[in-house]
Every structure is written in structure tokens, then in C-alpha cells.
Write a structure and sequence with these properties.
With about 150 residues, the protein is α/β, with parallel strands linked by helices. Helix content is about 25%, strand content about 25%. The protein has four helices and seven strands; from the N terminus they run βαβαββααβββ. The protein has a seven-stranded mixed β-sheet, covered by helices on one side. The two termini are about 20 Å apart.
């Protein structure tokens, strides 16, 4: 199933992410793709909020992986500064994909060959003051649109 949303604010982007996060379960992988400044981090902040995480998620650009505690463990991977697939494999990334938590990946286009077939792919486009288009692929059910929350 493919879902398409339009967001006109950072909070609306967070609400779309939160609606998805509320439906995620252990073993799910969410891969986000989009240019710098499109709102991937805002989306992931909402997503982890939907998973019951009370702290604000930040991009783990310098440590590569942050772990949060919600109703399930949440592993937040940022592949922006990675130098190749080998570096990610050496981190044990594949173990996260099939583990007991939910793994969310920013800059997932850098590791697309490593993504499991069950990954939910979120592509965000739009820059500056433009509305964001959020395309969610790989979900099995519709999520509540942000206007109904």
C-alpha cells in the first residue's frame, strides 16, 4: 500500500510520523529518504513519539545510532556521514533490522541494498516554505490523516 500526505508545517509532519509510529511493532524498519532540510528528523520525532518515547529524538549524525526507550526499543540510525555499506555492516546494522525493536533510518538511500524486504519506505520532498509531500510505502493499513487527530 502507498499512502500520500501533504504537510504544511513541522508539527503536521510530526503528527504524520506519530500516526505511523503508533502502529509499529517489534521488527519493523522505517527507512526515510529525502534531501537535506525536507523534514526527515521532524517526521522521525513524531514517529518515536508514537512509539511512546518521551524524549525528543535528535539526528545521531556523529554517533550513527541512538537508542530510545518507548513501548519497544527504538534504534535511530543516521547514514548521512557513512562511507559505505561495509561500515554499516560492521556496526551490526542487520541485527537491528531483525531484532526486538523498531529501527528507523535517516538517509536510507545510502544503504538501500541492506534494507530488509519488509521495510517501510518514507520519501519526503519539498524544501523551504514549500509544503512537504510524504509518501509512505510498504504499510499494510491506512494511518489516520493528521487533520483527524
Amino acid at each position: 500500500m502507498k499512502l500520500r500526505y501533504e504537510s504544511r508545517s513541522a508539527e503536521e509532519t510530526r503528527r504524520i510520523g506519530e500516526a505511523l509510529g503508533e502502529r509499529l511493532k517489534p521488527g519493523d524498519v522505517v527507512a526515510t529518504i529525502g534531501e537535506l532540510g525536507t523534514g526527515k528528523t521532524c517526521f522521525l520525532q513524531g514517529l518515536v513519539r508514537g512509539l511512546g518515547v518521551t524524549e525528543t529524538a535528535t539526528s545521531p549524525t556523529f554517533v550513527l545510532i541512538n537508542q530510545y526507550h518507548g513501548r519497544v526499543p527504538v534504534y535511530h540510525v543516521d547514514a548521512y556521514r557513512t562511507r559505505g555499506l561495509t561500515e554499516l555492516l560492521d556496526l551490526g546494522l542487520e541485527e537491528f533490522f531483525y531484532g526486538d525493536g523498531v529501527t528507523v533510518v535517516e538517509w536510507a538511500d545510502k544503504l538501500r541494498p541492506l534494507l530488509p524486504p519488509h521495510a517501510i519506505v518514507v520519501t519526503i520532498s519539498g524544501l523551504g516554505d514549500e509544503p512537504r509531500e510524504i509518501l509512505i510505502e510498504g504499510v499494510t493499513e491506512d494511518i489516520a490523516p493528521p487533520s483527524s487527530r
